[in-house]
Amino acid sequence: MRSLLRYEMRLWLALYRWVFRRPEPLPPGSVPFSYSGSGTMLLTAFIVVSAIEIPILDLLLPWRTARIIALVAGVYGLLWMIGLMATIRVLPHVVGEPGVRIRKSIALDLTVGWDNIREIRSRGRSLPPGGQTRFEDGVLSYAVAGGTTVDLVLAEPITLPDRRTGGEPVREIRFHADRADDLVAAARTRLTARA
Fold this sequence. Notes:
This protein is α+β, with helices and mostly antiparallel strands. Helix content is 43%, strand content 28%. It is built from 4 helices and 9 strands, in the order αβααββββββββα.
């Protein structure tokens, strides 16, 4: 219950930041990279359908109490989906001093330190149907719209608190970034400077 409440609060905070154009403060020298491009179209479709559904239900339901309940639930659901879109807009991946911070809405916030990055490369991949997160042979993939664009190979395998790994060590993380080449170039510049 506590994690659900925390998720909900972070979603509404993201909506506030997005509406009032107050991005999350980043440390100096950090560069944000979005991953919202692929998922925005799907979320927009859901938002439009939900917005159309609200007045239609009001016309179809003959009972006043049912119409009020449907209106409240419909407006809440619509705002919730807009808040979900806000999370992918205001919580970007970040290349900064600590390392590469990988995000996926509120569900993922993982920083991989520079000392544990052996290689980073841009490579588009499609995941088979069946989920946006996949773990196979030590490779953990966080897809957006069924694909990843960045491969981050770890110097040392790590165990992540992700139930899909079953406690097995992860040796490579794949994720999506809209400008994968730019993210990889920024990360490689940092890696070269540290070397």
